[in-house]
Design goal:
Helix content is 15%, strand content 38%. It is α+β, with helices and mostly antiparallel strands and 250 residues long. The protein is globular.
């Protein structure tokens, strides 16, 4: 991963080949893997700017996801070479919005990821003032969101479909379920026949509450004209809301 040269719209990125273990049965990139790539280049960018996880944690700062939206033009396939590029797009208060683009080797957009992050104290879990970062981030010029990931309105679903206990393998450096895992949960909660045969066009994820080891996520689902609305609940609290949109060919 590296800083991109002057004249490149994004500030940081990497070129990579899609490995088989990141693909589904149709040899297409899993959405959770796409989110991992976005997380990896975002983390790498912060490291390059002197704001790696360890350094921020020492200062009492961690970033937690507020919401993210994926706009899917085409899913890359196994062994395809792609670029993953990223830049902060906007900073409003203690929230930072970042855009990441998965791009073909020929320069065509594959998946756009727009994510909103909040800065919190890792011990108290309380939001922090923007002044604690004390750094002017290089923002993406001419940014026009296809949806504001910090202000998405999705809503809760009503029909129970599955449960998932938060396990060790779901956790990240902050000790809660990593945001990329929610994409797998959403797809696992959908009818298998549709996941296997239809092409996803969008995924919206709105985070409401962190999920910790031992928590039981009860996932609900409702059908939409072109996809599904889902929500995950821990006890009486909503953990996440999601919307998955498919093509209209079926």
């Amino acid at each position: 991963m590296s800083l991109l040269p002057p004249g490149e719209r994004y500030g940081f990125g990497r070129q990579m080949e899609i490995p088989p273990y990141d693909c589904d049965a149709a040899r297409r990139l899993r959405l959770s893997a796409a989110l991992r790539y976005a997380e990896a280049v975002s983390t790498g960018h912060l490291e390059a700017l002197g704001m790696g996880h360890s350094r921020l944690y020492e200062r009492g700062i961690v970033f937690v996801l507020v919401g993210q939206a994926l706009k899917i033009h085409r899913l890359p396939v196994m062994l395809e070479t792609i670029w993953v590029k990223t830049s902060p797009a906007a900073q409003v208060g203690a929230r930072l919005t970042r855009e990441t683009l998965l791009q073909s080797a020929e320069g065509q957009p594959l998946i756009e990821v727009q994510a909103a992050w909040a800065m919190i104290d890792p011990r108290s879990r309380r939001p922090l003032k923007p002044s604690v970062l004390a750094l002017d981030l290089p923002l993406l010029e001419g940014w026009h969101p296809f949806i504001n990931p910090a202000r998405m309105r999705i809503g809760e679903a009503s029909t129970p479909v599955m449960e998932q206990t938060v396990r060790y393998s779901h956790l990240d450096l902050n000790g809660h379920m990593n945001n990329t895992v929610y994409a797998d949960l959403v797809l696992d909660a959908l009818p298998l026949s549709e996941v296997m045969t239809r092409t996803p066009q969008r995924l919206l994820l709105k985070m409401r509450r962190e999920a910790y080891p031992g928590d039981v996520l009860r996932i609900r689902r409702d059908a939409l004209p072109d996809g599904y609305r889902l929500s995950g609940h821990i006890g009486a609290h909503t953990c996440f809301e999601a919307e998955m949109g498919f093509d209209r060919t079926q």
